[in-house]
Amino acid sequence: MPSNALELYFPFLLQIAIAFVLAAGLVGASAVLGKRLKNKVKDMPYECGMTPAGDARHSFGVKFYLVGMLFILFDIEAIFLFPWVVVFRQLGLLAFFSMLVFVLLILTGFFYIWKKGALDWGKFNPDELKG
Amino acid sequence: MGEIMAHPYFVPLLTGAAIIALFPLVAGYLVLVERKVLADMQTRLGPMRTGPHGFLQPIADALKLLLKEDTIPDEADRRIFWIAPVIAAITALAALGFIPFGAGIVVADVNVGVLAVAAMSSVGIIGVILGGWSSNSHYSLLGSLRSAAQLVSYEVALALGLLGGVMAAGSLSMVAAVERQQQQQLWGVFDNYGLMIVSFMIYFIASTAETNRAPFDLPEAESELVAGYMTEYSGFRWALFFLAEYAAMCVVAGVAVTLFFGGWLRPFASVAFLEGPLNVGVPVTVFGVSGIGSLYLVRRLKLLHQRFVLLAVGLFLIVCAALFLVPPVAASLAGPFWFFFKLSLLIYSMIWIRGTFPRLRYDQLMNFGWHYLIPLGMLMLLVHAVVGVARG
């Protein structure tokens, strides 16, 4: 048997390598097999047949950054909980109350950002459609 | 030969190679099944032309995609454009390596299996984002931004649902999770007096969103964003994104089967007298009935080559049924059979959901994730902890 925990990943690494060969090989094969007819119009960004409206890489809504930051906070929280849920039966009440405080703190923060409107993605207002 | 087979890496490497070699075919047939099931739900026939009842459609599609022109838009960032679908496909295929398909049939039984699967699928998101960004098209960029926001939002809900499953399993190792369900004589989903089913529902909804499946298919909403992050992709690069999506479906369903539905265990695994009916009777019935059904349909087909294909399929299914009548073979195949049986039920329900629910609006999607799934997930975590500590 493999002697340490990291050796268990060896077949997995080989699987990644095989998967890479498969994926890259298939793309390569299609590049070789498929014929190429270059054409200026064909190589333009697709915008339903219209002339592309300029470069696509411009600034976008700050909301997306906010979601990214909130994700990092909450995902770290979830990762922090993983070790505890594995052994919470053995650790008993002390660990339970410690984690209860931790989760309640996170929940307080969660309701704070909720009330601050960080999670609102625009209210749907039927009247706007009429005007 | 015996020496090679006794090597500890033999089964993992064989499993890994089998996954990579077979998965493109499996994904192709999943697409066919999905099209057929959706067609049936909408009273259509679905693909019928290529092979009997469209049976050869995946092979025709794969050949067509291989021979397609491999276009890269002028404005695109070529290297990132090239690597993005490869990242998506590799991570999804690699995550399959942590899932035990049967007793001992697993590529890497690591002690943090659940976490490793979650990590691999998170890396897969990068492929989607890079693909949309590098295309330099408005549709792709919008699609990939939406995708990023949606995937990271539901990733939290997914993790909270998984935490529930891990609480039932008492281990992050997938194999240990199944073994514990065997000891408890209870599937994870019914644990904690049935409360675990809420965690499973959170996990299942979040995983539907994670795999960009309807009704959460906003990133590729074809009615408004053409195809979202895949707009500029064609030929086999596009097929790799497709492969990744179906591999991700199998991964999330496989994790759900392992943590919540007893993995490779048959139903009522502790009831000895059901061994015969469930481990032999059910597979023989499933394969036998579909085999005989195929043979029956052969007579109705008009074209000779279609008859041959369906005859071969029918005979293959009957041989599969016969295999389960041989006791030693049946004993080793029963585990994988039950795993894939449960997996297909879950994947069927994902297709069913796609056929039933209309697509959400973007604000509804984000509100549902942040205002309902995440608070509910945290609440369930505390409830499970109280119940778990109280039971000791």
Key features?
heterodimer, A: 131 residues, B: 392 residues, 72% helix
Q: Give the tally of β-strands of chain B.
A: 0
Mean pLDDT of chain B: 84
Ends apart, CA distance between termini of chain B:
49 Å
Q: Greatest contact pair?
A: A-B, 73 and 84 residues
Provide the number of structural domains of chain A: 1
Please identify the oligomeric state. Answer: heterodimer
| Beta-strand content bin of chain B | under 5%
Order of helices and strands of chain B: HHHHHHHHHHHHHH
Q: What is the chain-wise order of helices and strands of chain A?
A: HHH
Summed over residues and divided by their number, the pLDDT of chain A gives a mean of 79
Number of strands of chain A: 0
Q: How many helices of chain A does DSSP assign?
A: 3
Please give the share of residues in helix of chain B: over 70%
Report on the biggest sheet of chain A.
Answer: none
Pick out the low-confidence regions of chain A: none
Overall shape of chain B: globular
Classify the secondary structure makeup of chain B into a structural class. mainly alpha
What can you see in these coordinates?
The complex is a heterodimer of chains A (131) and B (392). The termini of chain A are far apart. Chain A is mainly α and 131 residues long. The longest helix of chain A has 55 residues, at 62-116. Helix content of chain A is 64%, strand content 0%. Chain A has one domain (10-47, 61-130). With 392 residues, chain B is mainly α. Chain B has a domain at 66-265 and 326-391. Chain B has 14 helices and no strands. Chain B has helices at residues 2-6, 10-41, 57-67, 78-95, 113-135, 138-169, 174-184, 196-210, 222-225, 235-260, 275-298, 304-323, 327-356, 362-391. In chain B, helix 2 (10-41) packs across helix 10 and helix 10 (235-260) packs across helix 13 (327-356). The model of chain B has no long low-confidence stretch (mean pLDDT 84). The chains are: A mainly alpha (131), B mainly alpha (392). At the A-B interface, helix 1 and helix 2 of A face helix 2, helix 3, helix 4, helix 5 and helix 6 of B.
